[in-house]
Amino acid sequence: MSHPVSQFATRITYLSRQLPRMAWYAGHLYVMRRLAEQVRRREDRGTQPKSQSRPRSQPGIQQRLDADIVALFADDLANVEAGIYPMPSDHDGSLFTVLNRSRLFFRDLPSIEQRRKRNGTHEVLTAKTRGLRPDYYLQNFHFQSGGWLTEESAERYDTQVEVLFRGTANAMRRQALPPLAEAFRGRDQRKLRLIDLGCGTGRFLDFVKQAWPRLPAVGIDLSEAYLRHARRHLERRARTHLVVANAEAVPIPDESCDAVTSIFTLHELPPDVRGSVVREAARVLKPGGRLILVDSLQLGDEPTYDAILARFPQSYHEPYFESYVNEDFRTMARRCGLAHQRDIRAFVSKVMVFDKKAKN
Questions:
Q1: Which domain holds residue 130?
Q2: Other beta carbons within 10 Å of 26
Q3: Residue 121, SS3?
Q4: Which of 120, 144, 164 is the last residue in one of the domains?
Q5: Among 90, 186, 227, 339, which lies 20 to 30 A Cα-Cα from 20?
Q6: What is the pLDDT of residues 147-193, one digit of tens each?
Q7: Smallest Cα–Cα separation from 147: which of 165, 167, 132, 163?
Q8: DSSP E strands: which ranges in the chain?
Q9: Same structural domain for residues 100 and 232?
């Protein structure tokens, strides 16, 4: 049992790091919504009858969202206090870096709004880019400029995600660490191997390395720009390798990994590609290995949020989200030789845990 003074210090340290961060990104969301509302009022002026009003959100939704954010951070802190992972460092960068990313975020909002109005979803699919990546990948996901292909997109991405989730994205990512700790318990981390599919800017791999600094880890992603960003973010982390590759054809041998993770990636994939990625994860896992997926809640996981999930693709360009929220991952995994262990709710995301049967 931890000493009360030590426990108090841990909680104060945690809150002093997470509360200002959450307030920072929640403030961005507030400003973004106010700017969007001003634009809508200007557009509606003189065209919308006075008796007509915009639909309001379902009563109680905001209170439930707030309560679930509190529960997420309580779980995050409990994991730290239990020694599952150390006090997290979000490594957002210097004040200059944070402010510059905010500038990039707000600067792109007018382009996002214009793209949303004209349904500009495939501007990155050009004669120059066609064939370099799968067509499904060459889209302006979230209506953002550059899709996943540019340096500025990589610099904006983490701010965009944290704003969308009010500063909770990293805390949701960290909820994949407890099932990893179960799989690694009592084992020499230097002799294990983890691969993260669709590692993006490397935020999840950073948390993995905070918990297991000597663990050999590989991150793969299709975006060279995002991997360049990840290399800068992870440059102080030893035994970490980043590779430009497609998760449909992971460039490592069969049964060579003790754990495979994929964080906020599957909802961006067409159904057939999603299935291919899970099959590849099963292929590279050693017998007894563990697959951990973190992504959005699905329909029926929390009925209170079903309406939000249904509206989400209308506000953001998420062409495969509707198929994702209806996907049967348990059956998909079972067909690949993976047994579902459990799902863990984490605010508006969930952690799905699957194990590959060990050899007798």
A1: 95-164
A2: 17
A3: coil
A4: 164
A5: 227
A6: 999 999 999 999 999 999 999 999 999 999 999 999 999 999 999 99
A7: 132
A8: 194-197, 217-221, 240-244, 257-263, 285-296, 338-346, 349-356
A9: no
